[in-house]
Each structure stands twice: as C-alpha cells, then as structure tokens.
Amino acid sequence: MSPISWKSVEHAVSTKLAYSARVLAEPWRYDLDKLESAVAAAEELRSSGRKIGSEQLANASWVVHRFGEAVVAVGRAYTHVRAGKHREGWIALVDGEDALNALHGFESLSPVALPVDWLLQHVLQMQKPFPYQLFASSGLKIRKQVCSICGSPVSPFTDCGHELGGLYMGERCGAVVLDAELMEASLVRHPADKRCVMLGSSEGGIVRDHHNYRAVDHLFANLVGPFARFQVTVSTRHYPPTKFQSLSADRLCPCRSGETYGRCCKGKKRIPVEHLDMVFEIPAPGARVIKDELL
Ligand SMILES: [Zn+2]
Ligand SMILES: [Zn+2]
C-alpha cells in the first residue's frame, strides 16, 4: 500500500468543497435533494478537515455548511407554508436567518463567493407578511457555563484563550450553559429568539391559532420556487372604522399591535393598517412582472 500524502488528501477535499459551494451559491438551479446532499458533503468535509488537521479546510467547510443549512431552511419554509404549516415555515425562516447571521465576517473563507447578503434579504422579505407580533422571552440567571471548544468555565474572571464567536477547527466558539435558573418569562415585541411565537388561546388542550395568514399564503402561492425573486414593501394606510364593522372586539387589532381590537383601535376615527405591496418577478418563459395589492 502506498502512503497517502496529506497534501493530496487536502487537495481532494478542497476540490470537493468547491463543488458543494458552487451548487449552494446558485440554489435556484437545483432541487432540494441536490442542495441537501451538497450540505451533507460540506459537513463530511468539515470532519475530514479536522482529521487531517487543516484548520483552513475545516473552517472553510463550516462556512459552506452553515450557508447550505440556510439554503435548505428556505427550501423547507417554502414547502411548509405551501402545505399550510405556517408556524413550521416561520421557524425554518428564523433558522435560515440565524445561520446567515452566524456567517458574518467569515464569508471570505469560502472557496467560492456565496450570496450571503442576498439570501439574508430574501429570508427577511419572506418573514415580512407573517402576522406574529408577540413573542415569549425568558430571563435566565446563569449559574454555570463553559467554553464549547475546551470545556473551561466561562466567567468574567477566567480566560481560556478562545474568543466567543471565533472559529476553531471548523467549530464556532460559544458558551454552553450547564446550569441556569428561569427568573421570568414575558411577552415582547423584539425577542432574542423569534421562534417563540405566541399562538393564541388554548381550548381543551388544543391550541387555536387565530393569526391571519392571508398575506403569507398570497406570497408563497405566487412564488414559483423558494428562491424566486420578489419584493415586499410595507406602508401604512388609514381606514375609517366602518371597514372593520364585522370584526369582533376580542380579535387581533388590524393595526398589528398584538392587542385585541377592543383594547386598541376600536373607537378611533382612522385606523392605521399595514399595507403590503408584493412584486413578483417571474424569470422565464416570457418574463413579466405581476404587481399585486393586498388589503
Ligand atoms: Zn476555551
Ligand atoms: Zn390597533
């Protein structure tokens, strides 16, 4: 058996990584299966990089893998929403947003330029028509946390040498909370974790979702694929209360404050309503732009 040189392994790994990165950089050209296998390949190459001790390869694979996770999350969100699973779709979009934000400052490590900013804007645009206004947020008192790279305790008085958020051999350094106490839980408008959506009333153990998903459905029904280009612009229009005569006081207020109509805008002379304007770009065949107005 002839000995394999690390150099040739390194070369083979980088070639494979560049291939996966090229697929993920143009996700609109491939189906979800192909994208998912590119993500799995990047994850495998990350462990190969670690095995041969190449920090550069391990870190580059981490970037491609994380970007790929965002790509796949957008694909999943598209499938979920079109199947009527709005909350699952929303969570996938937040997963995508988190993956892309984690890449900040590391994009240049990828062997192929990745459209990180474009995909982040795409994800945020997809989130715009969702009706969620209130989120659950928890306050924690942390008793013990350790460095995810070396396991040393993290506190203001210790320094293990690893920087929080830094990349080490294809791993992002974070603080792992081992012991914490829940101090409070509250409802907030700008949460740290946008996945904690308040769904609404619970009746006999079954949670009923009172949100209006009309605008979300409209957006996703008109997108020809998860990466089709579109634009949502939000503006505010004012309507007389007669427009909402049939709206009962215990429903969510049309101004999207998160309050019930009765406790918020009922009785006002003009009621502010968010207006979503969606523009879809259908690339081929016979490219045309459809302008659509909602509410
Ligand atoms: Zn450490
Ligand atoms: Zn209101």
Structure explained in plain terms:
- The protein is of the alpha+beta class.
- It has three domains: 6-127, no CATH class; 135-188, no CATH class; 200-280, no CATH class.
- It has six helices and nine strands, in the order H-H-H-H-H-E-E-E-E-E-E-H-E-E-E.
- Helix 1 packs antiparallel against helix 2, helix 1 packs parallel to helix 3 (55-82) and helix 4 packs antiparallel against helix 5 (116-127).
- The longest helix has 28 residues, at 55-82.
- The chain binds zinc ion (2 copies).
- Residues 253, 255, 257, 264-265 line the site of one zinc ion (ZN).
- One zinc ion is lined by residues 253, 255, 257, 264-265.
Write a concise synopsis of the structure shown.
This protein is of the alpha+beta class and about 300 residues long. The protein has helices at about 5-25, 30-50, 55-80, 85-100, 115-125, 215-220; strands spanning about 135-145, 165-170, 170, 175-190, 200-205, 205, 230-240, 270-280, 290-295.
